[in-house]
Write a structure and sequence with these properties.
Strand content: under 5%
Number of domains: 1
Order of helices and strands: HHHH
Radius of gyration: 14 Å
Shape: globular
Largest sheet: none
Helix content: 55-70%
Number of helices: 4
Amino acid sequence: MPRIRPLTENEISSDMQVFFESQIEKTGVVFNSTGIQAYCPPILKGMNALAHGIAQSGQLEPSLQRLLNLKAAAIIGCPF
């Protein structure tokens, strides 16, 4: 459980809705990190741009990206 309560869809500004909707479309949920980053829209936009840039660069094979995600989740104690 995060120490900072993530914002919900009802609490964010209309220009941030696109980030929540996109994540729901891709994963079925809004991650806690997205709700927390929504407190500071420039951070949410920047993190989204970074993730999109990495994905679009083609520098990481999908199998390696999945392995990195799994390792990062294990390091922080994420159950999935």
